[in-house]
Design the sequence.
């Protein structure tokens, strides 16, 4: 009798174990096709193709991991922003950082900044609007895409020069990032990174920068051809905003778009979709963008408006709103550490 009971008990254990495995397999088999479909749809939307099935399998796994991270993050209650898929969704965060950032400051830059910061011309500005959007003022060109070249610094530079050119002349002209990439080589490293102040110096020395139409973007550094094109815009100088001071930065952005650096390489930054970004970063700058405005939500949350260079599938059609006036003097993600702007 006891032996019979043991056999029955063993049979029940096997049955329960088998049933739980079947439920688990069924759960996976129901879940997996939906992710496969999402990946296929994502591939079609972004024109993504892979060299072989092995590469596709690898990218699918990364896409799945990123999607799971996005869905989990969006369920957290304390976030004022949402994540979503974009053209970077089949890249690991390491791959993303290596290809799509590129802010690099020369080691000797700190001493040179101290002398130029003293000339910050907006430091006594008191009539600062409560909000500003330079897009609405007609001083911002459409979102661009740097591609797999770490020349965000060139795009940040050009966005600021495009802005001040329109403000001073009334003409909004898309200018050439490729010229900056090819020709601003004193202290900059092309797709390996660079600094906006060095790019401003180049434009001044060259007595101008060509239009994007005359010197189009190629996503790779080439031979400098500045002697073969005419200048579409010029600047006379550039100035550095007082570092680690969001009020000083506000004074500058109230008057024109400003080049800034940011720690924009974390997974939340990679998959940012919309809302007021309020976390997921440190203050060690890795990426360069332009601030093209600021404002506040109806419930009083203050933000900066950033123009990025990662195409329109990222963020709010290529833009980000990021929390403004935080306790840290560097600003969120280091946004106030090294701002600068060109002078027409």
Sequence:
């Amino acid at each position: 009798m006891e032996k019979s009971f043991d056999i029955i008990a063993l049979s029940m254990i096997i049955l329960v174990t088998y049933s739980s495995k079947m439920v688990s397999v069924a759960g996976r088999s129901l879940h997996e096709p939906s992710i496969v479909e999402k990946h296929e749809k994502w591939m079609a939307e972004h024109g993504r193709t892979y060299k072989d099935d092995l590469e596709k399998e690898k990218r699918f796994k990364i896409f799945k991991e990123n999607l799971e991270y996005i869905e989990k993050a969006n369920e957290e209650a304390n976030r004022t922003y949402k994540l979503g898929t974009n053209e970077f969704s089949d890249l690991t965060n390491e791959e993303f950082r290596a290809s799509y950032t590129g802010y690099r400051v020369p080691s000797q830059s700190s001493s040179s900044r101290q002398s130029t910061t003293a000339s910050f011309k907006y430091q006594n500005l008191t009539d600062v609007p409560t909000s500003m959007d330079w897009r609405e003022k007609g001083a911002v060109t459409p979102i661009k895409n740097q591609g797999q070249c770490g020349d965000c610094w060139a795009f940040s530079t050009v966005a600021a020069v495009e802005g001040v050119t329109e403000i001073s002349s009334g003409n909004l002209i898309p200018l050439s990032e490729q010229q900056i990439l090819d020709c601003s080589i004193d202290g900059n490293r092309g797709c390996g990174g660079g600094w906006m102040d060095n790019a401003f110096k180049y434009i001044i020395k060259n007595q101008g920068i060509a239009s994007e139409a005359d010197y189009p973007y190629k996503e790779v550094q080439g031979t400098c051809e500045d002697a073969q094109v005419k200048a579409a815009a010029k600047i006379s100088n550039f100035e550095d905003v007082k570092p680690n001071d969001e009020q000083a930065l506000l004074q500058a952005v109230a008057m024109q778009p400003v080049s800034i650096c940011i720690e924009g390489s974390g997974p939340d930054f990679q998959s940012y979709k919309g809302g007021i970004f309020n976390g997921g970063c440190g203050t060690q700058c890795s990426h360069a963008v332009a601030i093209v405005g600021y404002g506040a939500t109806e419930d009083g949350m203050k933000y900066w408006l950033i123009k990025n260079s990662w195409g329109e599938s990222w963020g709010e059609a290529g833009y980000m709103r990021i929390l403004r006036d935080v306790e840290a003097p560097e600003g969120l993600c280091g946004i106030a550490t090294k701002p600068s702007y060109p002078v027409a």
In short: The CA atoms of residues 39 and 239 lie 46 Å apart.
